[in-house]
Amino acid sequence: MRLRRQRRLIGSGTLIFTDTAATFNIEQRVKTYPNKGGSGSDFAEFDQQIMLAPTHIDPELKGVHMKWNVGSTCKSCVTSNTRWADDQNNPAGVDAYWPIEMDGRYGGRWGTIQTTWSGTGKETIDLGWSITATVDAGGNPATANFGTSGDVRVRELAPRCDDILKGVAPGCVLPFFKPTYTVDTNLYPAAGAYYWLMQEKMPDHAGSVKWDSLLHYLGPDTTVTNPNTGKPWTSDNSRNKVCGNWTAHPSDASVGSVDCDEYAMASTHESGGFPGGVNQVTNGDQCAQLFTDKMGDGSANFGLLADTRKAVDGPKGTERCGRAAIASTQNQQAFKSFPAPSWRMLDDDGFFVSSPGFEHCANANTTCAWRKVG
Q: Exposure string (b/e) for 162-191, b if CB count within 10 Å is 16 or more?
């Protein structure tokens, strides 16, 4: 008797016993709760679920039992027993079981377990799964290994739990998932245009979904320190490196007050000010220089223009960072919701930035007008 696994997460398995067999569709799920209140427990939590649905069971087997074996490397976890339910969420016994149905119709069985985490700091938890099958007709049990947390380089199915974030209850996430922060380009078109342009022009296209290039968060648990203070490196440190010697380019009074807006953001490892980063510069003069102003064509339109005070011919497209004079409200508000609380981001977590009012633009080599997102 053996159980053959055909696919890792969503697929089918066949239990073979002499000349008889049972075939199942199998689905696995992992759900994390970024805040312990979301799970209803007093601890950080993640849940796991498996769905087993027979497509055929030979009558000679008399009945099939399936036991779900779940393991983890967690040092601070408590895991519940598996709760089995049928397709209507009615209790379905200690293990998944299917007696022989003469009409050949079999319902699914859903196994669910809850794991709570009560540790300190942060912990990435590797998981493992297998299924042990027995049949009422007798014979030795068969076990199929369904693998672990994924590729060892990325551990795509390994939850991470922490209590690091200040003002936020402990929680768990799947850090392999890379979220996208969407700029409201209806409210902040100048900031959105600037971010989009830099994503197109920077050699590494940092933050661009189109170019599949991530930004990486400068989190509260960073191990990079400020050599002058010995304290953890902050976004203020990166911002001062890029914008510390900056003065605003003159612009039309209708633009209002402006700030130095740097890209990549000071809160990322891709910032020009981040020490040892891929885009590190000596100072902001090495960044692409831009400013917001009226287009000067007699219309009421505004645009993002080249600041030629540092580079007479404007940006070359090889600069590894940008600094731009952006209206203060837009600079301060466009990224204010980052990171979203539900993302539960820690240091070096990857993410994208989307500027939907400009993503219709073919490239950054011609003038492209903002579009309202409806």
A: bbebeeeebbbbbbbeebebebbbeebbbb
